[in-house]
Structures are given as structure tokens and as C-alpha cells.
Amino acid sequence: MEKTIDESIQGSATMLNTNLAAEKFSNGKKLYLESYGCQMNFSDSEIVASILTDKGFSTTRNAEEADVILMNTCSIRENAEQRVRNKLSQYNKRKKQNPSLVIGVLGCMAERLKDSLLEQEKLVDLVAGPDSYRDLPNLIEEVESGQKAVNVLLSREETYADISPVRLGSGGVTAFISIMRGCDNMCSFCVVPFTRGRERSRDPKSIVQEASDLFDQGYREVTLLGQNVDSYKWNITKKGEIINPDEPVVTFANLMEKVALVNPDLRIRFSTSHPKDMIDDVLHVMAKYENICDYIHLPVQSGNTEVLKKMNRGYTREWYMNRIDAIKRIIPEAAISTDIITGFCGETDEQHKDTLTLMSEVGYDFAYMFFYSERPKTLAERKFEDDIPEATKKQRLYEVQELQAELSLASNKKAVGKTYKVLIEGISKRSDEEVYGRNSQNVTTIFAKDDYKPGDYVNVKITDYTSATLRGIAVKA
Ligand code: SAH
Ligand code: SF4
Ligand code: F3S
């Protein structure tokens, strides 16, 4: 099966690198960019590519011919960081043969590991945090003049609103649009508020303009990105004070509606919703517009209220189930996915079982599942003991994964016989005769290519399924 973008959101390392067409002018230097972690990091890499190609760099898919190697890193779990270290060691071997090679770390490992990466392990020449990408051309110059270069300052304002991202890696059909940065939630297990700083929303005009430009370039799906999209707000402070009385206030529901109105043939997705903030307004806008996909990612993390409290998630099991009921009532066709953490500090067997029962009660269509990995500086690291043995964490993860495999299979089985509108994203990797895309519910669907091409919408009647994919035949009008 094709790896969907959503599969690469959480933790799995995927490379983003591309050959861009000839640039306005060239400085003769080649940039190799590699991204790890969530969609936000992938979206940021496109901003980095834009900033550096404006300065004359061209990008390459081949690390061996690069003058500058930048790794956009993730800190969410320990193994994410370990993967980056291994890769950095490999690139350092190359530097022995080519001492002018510049190696840099961007993204979420920057702030936490700058000293260690630059000074102790001497793995990199340059470290830039998520809010300092405009400074990259200067930082690279500093390195070329023989110094180590660091900028990990986090900003309260930076949203890169005016930068038009260079689209990397996508097939020209789907694209990400960052609508906000940072996170103020302080879930006790999570490192993101430390690596990405305070939450701030981007000007809605620049978001709508970006969506409209993408549509004109042939894109047919945009995913609006933020760590907690439900708390998107423009022209109003966190305390509820209006900033400019002559301008309208824009909430996430308003923003989604504006983007949906760009064109009925532009599909809208968004990630991530937070159960404590997801209000019915958002669901009503989803129900109103056919081009807003019937898919909602609503991470629960645990099915037990005590554990949720320790996680500082701001909701109970009952509140979460109330939100699920609202989704099912307002958008009956919606697919629902989640994130789950097993073996959080002090989690008992009973509490773990609550996660399993919640999963069955919701009947998730899809889930991203992890075992707890303690992260430095987080509330959990400071307040609770990471006391669940690794074997238990993994056993619980296995149980959660087994249950989800059954639920996903059951969900896809229900699709058989139904017809879905699928947006074609590309030619199947397994066969030139087949194309793949996703239905509104975000399930990858494969069918015969015929004369179809990426970017086409096709109604597909489902004939077969696995836990991860649907197969079907095109229904001709
Ligand atoms: N902003 C999103 C999630 C971002 S991180 C949200 O609030 O839902 C993506 C997922 O990684 C989280 O939902 C969580 O399930 C997982 N995760 C975060 N920190 C983790 C940790 N310390 N150990 C294991 N999984 C973690
Ligand atoms: Fe992390 Fe919680 Fe913010 Fe998500 S909402 S990024 S889990 S602190
Ligand atoms: Fe990782 Fe940073 Fe995203 S820690 S999950 S890349 S916000």
C-alpha cells in the first residue's frame, strides 16, 4: 500500500528532498533537506526550502552531492531522536572527506540538544530552532566563515505568513497549510510546548490566499495544520478581548468556512483537534460543506479519567465520549481516528483496560499508538515516576494495536458496496495499471487507472478491503 501522508505524521522518518526547477539565480550550492516527525515539520521544511532557494540554493535528492545538509528533527519520543543521531553520524563520516560540507539540525531537537550536538558530540555546524528559519542564510554564512552557528530563539509572533512554501515531495495534488504555530496546552507527557514555544495564529487572509494559489496551481486538497486547531483565533486575545473592533474575529470554524469557499473542488482536511476545545460549531461547518472531509482526528491518549487528569489533558472520559456523540450525530458518515499512549506513569491494569473499552465504544477507524517515552523538562518528568516497566508498556501497546487492527478491519468491511468520491493522488507503486487516492473518510482506495490522472475526482464502488486499504471499481457517470 502507498504510504499515506498521515502515516508519516507521527514519528516515522520520511525523507523530503527534491530537485527544483531552475531558480531565478544560483549561488551554485546544493541543499539536501531531510524531515522527521509530524506534518508541521514537513510543512516547515517547505518554508526552509523557500527561504534558501530565494538565496540561490538549489535542492537535491542526493545527499552525496550536497554542500549543505539540513535535518529537520523531532523530539516527541526518545527513538525519534535516536534515529536522527544515527543519521548525523553517517553524514559526519562524509564530512571527513569533504570538510566544507555544512551539516545542520533544525526543528524540535534544536533547543534541547544544541550544546550537546555542537560542543560535546560535535555532530553539527549549525543549529536553528523552529522560529529562526529566516536567519538560515546568515547562519550558513557564519559556518562558512569558520564559526559554529546557533539560533534557537522562540518567538511569540513568527508565523512565516508571507513566505510562499516551496512544495516538496507531494505529487502536486495535496498540500499542507500551517495555520498556527506552537502550543500552550502543557499536556504533562509532551515536549512540544518546549520545542515550539507559545501558540500563535496566522493571519486568515494569508491562509485563504495560499489555499487559493494552490488551487490555481492544480492542487485539490489542503490540510490545515496546528497542534490544536480548535484554539485558532484571529483578532481576539486568549482572554477574549477584541484587538481591532473594525475587523471581524475569526475562529477555527470561520476559517474553515473561508477556505471551503475558495472552490468546491478544493478538499479541506485539518489536524489536530483537541477534545477539550472541539466545539459543535466546527462540526456544523464540516457538515455544511461537501468539500470539508468527513474525517476527524481526535486524540484521546487514555480512556481513564484519572490518567487523563495526570496527563493534564483537560477532559474526562465522559467529556470525550460526549464529543464523539456530537460527531456521530452531526456528521454520521465521519471517520474518527485517535492517538493513544500506553504505560503512562502509574497506569494500572484496570486503567489500561479503560482505554481498550473506550476504543471499542468509539469504534475508531484508525489510530496512532505509542508507548510512553519520558521527555526531559516535561511536567510528567518533574512530577511523576516513569514506573511502568518497558515490557508492560509494550504488552499494553500490543493489546491496543491488536484491538485497533480488528476495529479498522470492521470499519473497512462496512465500506464494501458503498460508493465514495476519491481524489486521485498518484499511480499505485505496485502496478502501473492502478491509481490510488483517498475517500473523504481518509481511507486509501485503489482502483483501475483507465484514463484517470492525479487530481481527478472519481466515484468508486468498493468491492474489497484490508485493515488499511479499500479496493473498488470506478462508477462512470
Ligand atoms: N497536538 C497533538 C499531538 C502532537 S504529538 C495533540 O494534542 O493531540 C502526537 C502524538 O504523539 C500525541 O498525540 C501523543 O499520542 C504522542 N506523544 C506525545 N508525547 C509522547 C510521549 N512522551 N511518549 C509517547 N507518545 C507521545
Ligand atoms: Fe503536546 Fe498536548 Fe500540545 Fe498536543 S496539545 S502538542 S499533546 S502539549
Ligand atoms: Fe516532533 Fe516537533 Fe512535530 S517534536 S511531532 S516534530 S512538533
Describe the structure.
- There is one protein chain.
- With 477 residues, the chain is α/β, with parallel strands linked by helices.
- The chain has 3 domains: 13-151, Response regulator (Rossmann fold), CATH 3.40.50; 174-413, tm_1862 like domain (pyruvate-formate lyase- activating enzyme, Alpha-Beta Horseshoe); 419-474, OB fold (Dihydrolipoamide Acetyltransferase, E2P) (Beta Barrel), CATH 2.40.50.
- It has helices spanning 39-54, 78-97, 110-120, 136-144, 192-196, 204-216, 252-260, 280-288, 305-310, 317-330, 349-362, 379-383, 390-413, and strands spanning 30-35, 58-59, 68-73, 102-107, 126-128, 149-151, 174-178, 180-181, 200-201, 221-225, 233-234, 250-251, 267-271, 295-297, 335-342, 366-371, 419-427, 434-438, 444-448, 457-465, 469-474.
- The strands form 6 sheets. A 6-stranded parallel beta sheet has the order 2-1-3-4-5-6, sandwiched between helices. The protein has a 5-stranded mixed barrel with strand order 17-18-19-21-20. A 3-stranded parallel beta sheet has the order 7-10-13, with helices on both faces.
- The protein is globular.
- The model is unreliable at 1-23 (pLDDT under 50).
- The protein binds S-adenosyl-L-homocysteine (SAH), iron/sulfur cluster (SF4) and FE3-S4 cluster.
- Residues 10, 76-77, 189-190, 192, 227-228, 272, 274, 299, 301, 339, 341, 370, 372-373, 375 line the site of S-adenosyl-L-homocysteine.
What are the main properties of this structure?
477 residues; Rossmann fold; pyruvate-formate lyase- activating enzyme; 6-stranded parallel β-sheet; 5-stranded mixed barrel; globular; disordered N terminus; binds iron/sulfur cluster
